[in-house]
Write a structure and sequence with these properties.
8 strands; 2 domains; elongated; signal; 8-stranded antiparallel beta barrel; 1 helix
Amino acid sequence: MKKRALFIAFLGLVCGYSNADQKIAATAKSQDLQATENTIQIKTRPEILGLWGMSIPNTKSCTEYYNFRGSNEVIVNSAQEWSAGLFEYQPSPDNTKEVLPTVVMQIRYENNEKDCSGNQVDQTGDLSQYFVKWQNPNQIQFCANEKGQECFATLRRVLP
C-alpha cells in the first residue's frame, strides 16, 4: 500500500511539473506571438526609386527611361537600347545642398542597339557616377560635380 501511495505521489509530482512546464511554454509562446505581431518594422528606401524619363534634345519625341528598382537594380531604355545593372544611391552626408547626393550605376547587360541619340555603343561593364540635384520631388538633374554645376541631364518622375 505504501508503494502504491508513493507511486501515486510520484506520478502526481511528475504530472504537476509537466503541466507547469506546459503552462510556462504556452505563456512564452503567447508572448512571442504578441511581440511578433506588435513589432513595427520601418524600412527606408532611397528617394530616387521609381521610373524617371529624360527627353533627349534634337530627337523626335524620344525619351530615355531610368527605372531605379528595389534591390539596387536599374533598367535603362533608350529607343531600341536596353541596359540592366546595379546602382547605389548615397544621400547628401549632411542633408544640405553644399554636397549633392550621388548615384553610381554599373551596367551589367546591354543589348547593343541604337539609343535615342542614334548611337550604338556597348556599355556592358561601364561604371558611371552622377551628382543628383533635386529640383523638386518629381524632377532631378544629373551633374558632373558635387556643387551642382555642369548639369547635363534633367529627369522627370514618371512613376513613384
